[in-house]
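Troubleshooting: if your tokenizer reports a length mismatch, compare your output against this known-good record of 547 residues.
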Amino acid sequence: MSVKDNIYSSYLKGEKVDRPETPSGIPIKEVYLPDDIKDLDYEQDLGMPGEFPFTRGVYPNMYRGRLWTRRSQVGFATPQDTNERLKYLFKEGQTGFTLTIDLPTSYGFDSDDPICEGEVGVTGVALDTAEDLEAIFDGFSPDEVSCSLSIRPPVSAVTLSMLALLAERRGIPYSNVLGTQQNDPLFQMSGGPLQTTTQFFPLDGIIRLNQDIIEFMAKNFPKLNWMVTNAYNLRETGLSAVQEGAFALSHAFDIFRRAVKRGLDIDEFAPRASFFCSCGIDFFEEVAKFRAMRRIYARTLKEEFGAKNAKSLKFRSSMQTAGNSLTSQQPLNNIVRTTVEALATIFSGLQSIQVASYDEGLGLPTEESSRISLRVQQILGYETGVTQTADPLAGSYYVEALTNEMEKEILALMDEVEKRGGLVECTRVGWLEQQIIDARVKTQREIENEEKIVVGVNKFSIDEKEDADIRIHKINAKEWGEKRAEYLKKYRAIRNQKETDEALAKVTEVMKTDQNIIPNIMDALRAKATLGEIHEAMREATGFSFR
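Known-good structure output:
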């Protein structure tokens, strides 16, 4: 039988997509009726956009008042290379960016450390000195351009200090600095990334620095968001939408309780707390997830934490389309996937959107793939009309019923986390790791058994040679490593080594106390200490050794 005969035979029999449940396992009815939302209390469960419990969005007029921030992830090679890419993207209409760092930087090492060989500039930009951040911001001002520093503690303690120093040197008041500082002490919560982080820095020290950052930002940076939970990287491990929502919120509340115990008032730091979430390919489940998360967040901040400032109750989140939904096979299909995910995010009412590049499964984005990702957002924003009213899916029997079900499932899983001592403890003992492993195995089995269809992978596949023409980003790790090593050699040669040593000794001293360490890290950067040297000074204070 020919391929054509197969296709028509299938069609004539009645081609079915037999999936009567969401990817999280919530059953889906064939049709939804008024009875499915008969228990919905409009005032208590929905309200107006911009009003408690913020199910319908955190701002009254949403995108009619201001279009979302259009970001892309930027960072590769040297700070100068990254700056060139930024200038290109802003010329094309980008309005913000997420700075991605390379592996050496993300674990607190200088580019010339022997452990970094072959990794400098590969997965992001190398960031070794305060001057490196200045080079990235050449032509941009941190009080005009929103930058999200996609960096976790302990490294984020240093990058926040770099940002503060950048503002100081340019005469910009801290109170005017925009953007977001990553501050998730667990980052991907479990698995290899967390284990690699704790291989190079103790978990207790990471959590302490997380609290120092919250305190310093709450008192000095009223416009700078601090990202409490990187739910995106959590979701990328293979978890479901329900698990992403539950673990992200549980983690945030765990961190909030620690900050309150430290002596901070909830209304002092919660107004600038933010999340970084994923938006998967299942359109309606993702819309329901975000609506449910906003409702749970608002109620918890009000009822458990006693927040009185309305800004404290708003679940504010940026989003990136799901990297784990993208395929290296037939990569141009990914443009369709990311468009659907971005549209779901718009209907969900989020404040900042990053559309992943179609070539993400093959390497870092090229100029072309970055531009296409930006164009997806621009077409949705300017041509489709989907921005003209807030929460356009409100009142849909299906959407409201699914939002209620998502809320129940998320709360039930959050309750289990709390019974186990909170998410930090769940991570310590390996419980969260097992949830991730189970989710990965389940998804892989579904793909192998064709219970989950991935177009171009287990259905409608083509000869791999047809994908051979895709242009990918070129990596020159050896060249970039040599450039950075030469730069650091010259950088250290012209500094006052006595001043540098004294500043680093002070970092070690303060790390042993309960004093906030951010001002001391800034002093070390002023004395030309490098990121790797500052981390070594903090490790020394904890008695932590990995070499």
